[in-house]
Specification:
globular; 2 domains; binds glutamic acid; Aspartate Aminotransferase, domain 1; binds 4'-deoxy-4'-aminopyridoxal-5'-phosphate; about 400 residues; alpha/beta; about 15% strand; Aspartate Aminotransferase, domain 2
Length: about 400
């Protein structure tokens, strides 16, 4: 004991670039709730940005046969996988993509991070429509960029007039994420066409985060390439975390101009190297089967269940999502402090939602409907109680 007491504990000095970095609020909250559940509490956990259920059986079976493969693959991915991505994307987007444009990454997050590192010089601005998924701002700032937040409209569509006003000579990129996290919105074709027009001839890259583009419930969804954007202007981010429920397998990709793809490859060659081989095999298997999500009809049913339930709760407002698996609930008639309200909802009513603060949207809370019917129904009853409570 005495020896320990004499050791002077030095506080580690962290790099300045990490000073304003916080852990992903969604992942941190999900981990906290899982710990509460492990400790024996009953919590209706609607924080998760991941589908419930196991790895799809067809992927388990196919990957099990390849476990002897243990060697590095090329950094941007196995040639067969890059070819399959290019073929699938050419079909989906109706624009030719070559394998040289595809870089396979360990999830969509490194694809985004590498894209920002490849594109941004210090002080370059990136327009981030808000509410926005938690990681964009941190990844942009880590790459030396400056975040310029521009709110979506009340109906969660791109506000192209506001975007036009936010453009400066330093604007280097804009994020378009449709279907959108955290609102589940599918942006209208009209607003995206208007944005494409606004960006024509400007050196602004559209970072199209298409990770939810297989989880769509509305016919109005159109792939971004069909809305007037020039293919060279796009950097497309995607992966299999959401379409195939493979969040833990860490497998995604970026599609970009071959020069950008080569720059990202050089970057990743020093950072992660190739994505894990079994995960690449899983992606190859998914693409060979058309990358069809297994749960779309279940998700649509759950969306409708939640919409009906929330409609019956006085004071709560929401826009029914057209894709992904999130509702953004407007709490502004219920509380002036959504973070505190969500904390109380968790500790007193045992329902976990993500407060809007995590998405630059105070006054709201995100509900993930990637949960079974019974959990959703119990959670909605508890939310109704919390909203109408007298205390
Ligand atoms: N973009 C969005 C909008 C997301 O919701 C997520 C979910 N984590 C990601 C990117 C990152 O996906 P991944 O888990 O494949 O890194
Ligand atoms: N994208 C998911 C979410 O928004 C997963 C968590 C994360 O990656 O931050 O909850």
């Amino acid at each position: 004991m005495r020896i320990l007491a004499t050791i002077k504990v030095m506080k580690p000095v962290l790099a300045k670039r990490l000073e304003s970095l916080e852990e992903s609020a969604t992942l941190a909250l999900n981990a906290r709730v899982k710990q509460m559940v492990a400790a024996g509490e009953t919590i209706y956990n609607l924080t998760a940005g991941e589908l419930d259920g196991d790895t799809p059986a067809y992927i388990q079976q196919a990957v099990a046969k390849t476990l002897h493969l243990n060697k590095y693959t090329p950094v941007p991915g196995m040639p067969a996988l890059r070819e399959a991505i290019a073929r699938h994307a050419s079909d989906f987007y109706d624009v030719p993509f070559s394998p040289a444009q595809a870089v396979v990454t360990a999830g969509a997050k490194p694809a985004l991070g590498a894209a920002f590192l490849a594109l941004l010089n210090p002080g370059d601005e990136v327009i981030v429509p808000t509410p926005a998924w938690v990681s964009y701002n941190h990844l942009i700032e880590l790459a030396g960029g400056r975040v310029v937040e521009v709110p979506l409209t009340d109906r969660w569509d791109l506000d192209v007039r506001a975007i036009a006003k936010a453009i400066t000579p330093r604007t280097r990129a804009i994020i378009v994420n449709s279907p959108h996290n955290p609102t589940g919105a599918v942006f209208t074709s009209a607003s995206q066409r208007e944005l494409a027009k606004l960006l024509t001839g400007r050196p602004i890259t559209v970072i199209a985060d298409d990770i939810y583009n297989k989880l769509v419930f509305t016919r109005s969804f159109q792939p971004i390439t069909k809305l007037g954007f020039k293919p060279d202007q796009l950097v497309i981010i995607n992966g299999w975390s959401k379409s195939q429920a493979l969040t833990g397998w860490r497998i995604g990709y970026v599609l970009a101009h071959p020069d950008v793809a080569a720059a990202i490859t050089a970057l990743l060659s020093h950072f992660t190297g190739n994505a894990a081989v079994p995960s690449q095999q899983a992606a190859l298997t998914a693409l060979a089967a058309g990358d069809v999500p297994g749960k779309l009809e279940t998700l649509r049913h759950r969306r409708d269940l939640v919409a009906q339930g929330l409609k019956r709760i006085p004071k709560l407002n929401f826009v029914t999502p057209g894709g992904a698996f999130y509702f953004m609930i407007d709490l502004r008639t219920v509380t002036s402090d959504s973070a505190a309200w969500c904390e109380q909802l968790l500790t007193k009513y045992h329902v976990a939602l993500v407060p809007g603060e995590a998405f630059s949207a105070p006054g709201f809370a995100r509900l993930s409907f990637a949960a079974d019917d019974a959990t959703l129904q119990s959670a909605i009853s508890a939310i109704a109680q919390a909203v109408t409570k007298k205390d």
